[in-house]
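Hi Y.,

Following your request, here is the sequence exactly as I used it, all 55 residues.
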Amino acid sequence: MTTENERPEIDLSRDPNPGVPNHARPEGAGVDPLIDLSRDPNPGKADHAKPEDED
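Below is the corresponding structure, written out as tokens. Let me know if you'd prefer a different format.
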């Protein structure tokens, strides 16, 4: 995680919702046309997710 000292060009005092992530798409927003799922090398597999524990 970056700290305020590492990114001095960002004015955190101008954040209207401090501490709230506002980069996510709103609920029910639909599909983002900039994400091309046809290029997914592992369709249907969440390769960014934490691996499941194997018992």
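The CA atoms of residues 17 and 23 lie 12 Å apart.

Thanks again,
Q.
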